[in-house]
Amino acid sequence: MSRADFAGTGRDAAPGAGAGTGAGTDAGKRTDAGTGDGGRNAAHANHAAPAAVRGGTRTRRMSGLLRSELLTTFRRWRTIALLGVLAAIPVLVGIAVKIETGDGGSGGGGDGGGPAFISQITNNGLFLVFTSLAATLPFFLPMTVGVVAGDSVAGEANAGTLRYLLVAPAGRTRLLLVKYASTMVFCLAATLVVAVFALATGAVLFPLGEVTLLSGSTVPLSEGLVRAFAIAVAVALSLTGLAALGLFVSTLTNSGIAAMAATVGLLLMVQIVDTIPQLHAVQPYLFPHYWLSFADLLRDPVYWDELVRNLGLQALYTAVFGSAAWARFTGRDITA
User: Fold this and answer.
1) pTM, whole model, 2 decimals?
2) Cα angle: 28, vertex 32, 36; to 5 degrees
3) How many CB atoms lie within 10 A of CB 289?
4) Considering the chain, what is the average pLDDT of its residues?
């Protein structure tokens, strides 16, 4: 092929090549336009996605923080020791009643001595649950709750970990809610420890059977167990006001020991005031005043008046001291 033929061929092919290139350019423009529309749609989707999952992320973060707080609380040796003391009390009460009744004694409760329900233990071991809760509620159970609640914030400040928790990011309100929720879980756990060990000890040392209620009627053992669980929950709820008070005290200081001592001291002071007849006008407003109302769950029908008053009073203390704790904690300079 000559140069002329090669040049002619090149001139003939050029228009086709130009047309092909122009078509490719048009296709590219259309592709870019399509890509631009898809990019804008993807951008809108990407902006909408975080708004849709933000609530789920917060929930997961909250649950993770609560799980971490519960593990920290229940892994402390102090917490384990407190629960161990609570577990030992029903065992000691059961053994004492067994020894006393082994030589023909009545159990010590018939003449008004000893904790409530103690005279019925020998006939039904389930009453050891009610006796143990009545014996631990005035001091031992509240003391353990006061220790845990008082140490919740002040203990972190004393250890120098509080500011790191706030950087996590946890947020002050969220952290305070987690602290209170953890204390409430401890209230339920401590109450169930007493109830479960009392039930196990009662089943080993005494017979189990139909339960004679305070109203004189008899219910099956299964219903008695349900009432025992309801009583344990009622006792745990009775401690929520004290938990809120301890949380508030814990926000006032950086010393965990001082917060625990102050909470337990306030508990003792309020209980002393609740026993002075001359102060009967203020006693219905004290958080421990209706603590023993759980006994009304052993009546048929159940007497709800004092139970409702107790729960309402605990809710009031939780609202007042929870708000005070929030106001103090959110406006406080965290230096430790």
Assistant:
1) 0.79
2) 170
3) 19
4) 82
